[in-house]
Amino acid sequence: MNQNTSTSSTAPHSAAPDRASVLIVGGSIVGVSAALFLAARGVTPILVERHTGISPRLRAKLFYPRTMEAYRAVGAADDIYAVERDRPRSEFAAVVESLSGAEIRRWRLPAADDYSAVSPCQGAMVRQGDAERVLRMRAAADGADLRFGHHFVAWEQTGQRVTARVLDDLGVPYTVEADYLLAADGSASSIREGLGIARSGDHALASSMELTFTADLRPLLDGRGLALAFAEQPGRPFISWTTGQDAGAVSVGYDPATTDPDTAFTPDRSQAIVSEALGLPTSRFRITGARPWRTAAWVADTYRAGRVFLLGDAAHVCPPVGGFGANTGIQDAWNLTTKLVSVLRGDAGERLLDRYEAERRPVAELTVRQAAARSAGARELSAGHGQLLSEAAVAVGYRYPVPVPDPVTPRAEAPLPPADEPERWRGEPGTRLPHLPLAEGTDAGSSTLDLVRGGRHALLIGPQGRTWAQTAQRLDPGHALLDTVVVTPQTLAPGASFAERCGISEDGAILVRPDGVVSWRSTHLTDAPRAALEAALRQAMQR
Known about the structure:
This protein is α/β, with parallel strands linked by helices. Helix content is about 25%, strand content about 25%.
């Protein structure tokens, strides 16, 4: 695949600004995902990223099912799974004496668990760089204007637009005007800093030295199914490697109050650390770099300033334990872009964009707390220890706060949790639409999640609620905003009950947003279905 897809700048720029509905700054996993999500829905973004290639750093390699569901909705999931199938299957982590020595204990990474009961997607165990190559190709094929090698310099916003100054890959300046600016420019975001947005949390949770190396690890890893390992040695070295098993990194902790990394990690000591962690003589590997880095756990105090939105690491940073970071950022992009598509199409009011921070920031706060708790304790802890939630609850089963009460849930009950095991949710507003398998041969796909498509809302109706369908037809005769599906027993695979799974009766209905989140439900057919549905749509569209 061509990883350097970009707009050529060999032709001179015109004096007039380039124009786009959305300008994305940052082309790593979150930025390029946002570009794909928009382009797949007919909105052509401009993305600028100063680097041309994909970072060689070992970053995320766990993509949870909810992330893969977003990619599935825009046709990219199968391409990512194809990459995974071409690599050795790696789904375990272990504590080891050394990588070539004995395993002390091992556990399956939660993203590799079987999620077939709650999702049409399994998690994907692929290197972030490999996923980024797929996403670049898909976004470009769908029409996104990807400008790698272009340097974002400055910007300003008015009440009507954002104007940015950019240098192309030859250093020639030009201007981009956009309705909205998405800052996906990383944890040191110049856009966030320029806006003066503060961050709450721990900016230096722990310090580590990352020592990168090349080595043939295949003899050590063959048949073990390992994705990562921790060495039971001083500094608890964390060992990671490429999917090709020909390079990797050893990250070892140190105390910055007592240790100067520039003097402490001499070439000889670095060689010794890597040698002990791998259990290999120095002749079997070559160190290629050393980089100090800090684990942080913080969330930006606000996600929006006018027409500018923060997402990904620009909005939140969490420790790597649990593999939540990239997944949380991708879900930021999925949430925000579906809202932008609705607003730019004219389907929804501008106020809908205010819901982005109201929904995503609490999720980030929860996720950062969970990752920090794992980092502070035993890194391999599973659910049930202390205040930890399961990884499935954090990455798949979170719930957005909703502005209106759910008429189905009695008010006397305890408040709903912000996250729970995915199989426990029953279509409560703010939760993801429950997955139920569709009958074989159904044109819509293989899951109830496939009934939500094209950036439109979906009204899913129990088998005895056809009056809801007639009402929806009168409200939206051209199906421009709303797809309507009566979910009969014939629609579903044998044994599945849509009404029961979604907490409604056979004549009830559930309204689902374009991002697959339930926004409203009615247990039964009401006496005034038109008024109820109109009110639900107004609330969902914020108009």
